[in-house]
Amino acid sequence: MESSSDAASVEARAIGCIAAVASTLIFGGAADAVPFAVFVGTNNDPTGGATVPFVQSEGLTSQTFQQIYSASAFPTGTLFSIYQIEFFPNRSLSPTGVFATTAGNFNIALSTTSTAVNGLSTTFANNLGADNTTVFNASLPMGTALDNRLFILFSSPFLYDPSKGNLLMTVISTNVPLNAPGVGGLLAEDPSTIMSDVFNGQTPDGGDFVAGSAVGLLTQFDYNPVAPATPLPAALPLFATGLGAMGLIGWRRKRKARAVA
């Protein structure tokens, strides 16, 4: 027969289990997220720059451009809800600060790809990830904000998980007039080991080409951090054990009371 002291001991342990787990569940959450930014590139070629894809070039009124960013450029342990992307003017090529055209339409998409840096295919579709998502589809804003950067605010954020692969940006420009305003270029890292690109163009004699390079536009991704999904706390089985013990104690007390009666 179970003594009252044994029952009290079991009850105390059960209550302790419940209290400990409840404390973990209530106070173990992440802090409120605040905006952050990831800058990709080292600016190791301050005199170099690139005109593609945001300045009409290569003799085309429409163009496809892809740039891949190594997952290693992003901090580990978080997901990135990217809501804006920034590029930087090259002062040697853009002394007036004009470095992008506002004419035409620019469709920008992001995806997670298994393609390696410096491994982009010249068949653009082969580089796309299954989660390819359009995040911007309009004319470019004037790059006259802070530091004359080109800010491109997304119509909807893109959730990027570096553990799933590299990040691919695809820019498709259309209806860009050959005399579109825009001179100079954007800062680029040349050569780069964490970025590379591939794009199409046209030679002076009218021949088309598709080319890739170990060059990457210096890029800043503005994002909100998202905590990765976590499994159920390891303490939950203990929590269930405590509840079961409490139920057993209640059942035994009722049975004992009936026996006395």
| Total tally of structural domains | 2
Mean pLDDT: 75
Specify the oligomeric state.
single chain
If strands are numbered along the chain, what order do they take across the biggest sheet?
A: 6-5-8-3-10-11
Envelope shape: elongated
Count, helices? 2
Strand elements, count: 13
Please state roughly what percent of the residues sit in beta strands, choosing from under 5%, 5-15%, 15-25%, 25-35%, 35-45% or over 45%.
25-35%
Structural class: alpha+beta
Termini, distance in Å?
17 Å
The H/E string reads HEEEEEEEEEEEEEH
Rg (CA only)? 29 Å
For the biggest sheet, the summary is:
6 strands, antiparallel
| Percentage of residues in helical conformation | 10-25%
Uncertain stretches: 7-34
Describe the 3D structure.
The strands form three sheets. Strands 6-5-8-3-10-11 form a six-stranded antiparallel β-sheet, with no helix packed on it. It has a four-stranded antiparallel β-sheet with strand order 1-13-4-7, with no helix packed on it. It has a three-stranded antiparallel β-sheet with strand order 2-9-12, with no helix packed on it. The protein is α+β, with helices and mostly antiparallel strands and 261 residues long. Helix 1 runs antiparallel to helix 2 (236-260). The protein has helices at residues 4-27, 236-260; strands spanning 36-40, 49-50, 63-69, 79-87, 105-113, 133-138, 150-160, 166-174, 186-189, 195-202, 208-213, 216-217, 219-226. It is built from two helices and 13 strands, in the order H-E-E-E-E-E-E-E-E-E-E-E-E-E-H. A hairpin with a 5-residue loop joins strand 10 (195-202) and strand 11 (208-213).
